[in-house]
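Retro notes, item 3 of 5
We never archived the inputs for the fe (iii) ion complex last cycle. Fixing that now. Sequence and ligand:
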Amino acid sequence: MLWLIIKNSPSYPGRPWATPASGEDATNRMRIDLHVHSNASDGTDAPGDLVRKAWARGLDGVALTDHDTVAGHPEAATAVAGLTGQGDRPFVVVPGVEISCIQGGVTLHLLGYLFDPAEPQFAAELDMLRTDRVRRARAMVDKLAELGAPITWAQVSAIAGDGAVGRPHVARALVAAGVVEDIPAAFVPEWIGDGGRAYVGKYSLDPAQAIGLVKAAGGVTVFAHPGASSRGAVVDEASIEAFASAGLDGLEVDHPDHDAATRERLRAVAAELGLLVTGSSDYHGSVKETQLGAFTTDPYVFEVLAGRASGGQVFSR
Ligand code: AMP
Ligand code: ZN
Ligand code: FE
Ligand code: FE
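Structure as it came back at the time:
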């Protein structure tokens, strides 16, 4: 509903949901970055700072999609309400999550949006995912110690703070200890890259199960960076088709880890399967180079996506 209010607001600059006439400058159209991380998981910005940064950058919205947690949502919602300084320009925060999944040994990430975070089964699964992240991070620390990399769980835990702990926190401890030069250098076979010497797997959901969980909580789903092969193995097209059959709504085609050819291929897959196409930065703050809003989602697509959801609402000013 809030979305409709914004959409129909006469004060919305440039009526950005309207199709730009040919030759019209499209820069005035609404830009939503549908995938960003805060320090509620492995990003470095607090949720409120992230919202204020996105606002200051001139974006029209962001989706907060921390790994396996919704803990950042309240602070983000408060921050939206407190945004000032740009007249009555609207801004939305889309409540979301990035769910850890696995299929046939291949890890993958599912974005969920506009779900009811209190839906019991959904909440219980997120809880289990976070709990096992702690066991797994501790196990990686133990393996690293055995390999002569002198980091401790206390250090990793201090870096993660209240956030859902993940490999980037372990990587930061390795950088601080001088074991590796930078974060990417930790994601290698010698250390904590997929299947690496000190890698430990974590509890993850079957993708179709995760899609069902989000749907049952009234939300919608987008397969995150489906072609990010630089991070490790990716699933094939037949799997994407199976996810579509399970109710997947969209594919995150425009993403920093996809080259032009991959984006083109995924756009074709989405068209073939009737999936929505989204774009997002996967911003993590200072631990990655990608800037907020590096990729964004077409406003019509977001409208369709949001229109399918019944479990949650955007936070708006
Ligand atoms: P985890 O969920 O704990 O297995 O950690 C996965 C996270 O690590 C991803 O969301 C990325 O933010 C980060 N990551 C994965 N691969 C790399 C890489 N090659 N270089 C830097 N960060 C990475
Ligand atoms: Zn991450
Ligand atoms: Fe991801
Ligand atoms: Fe992400």
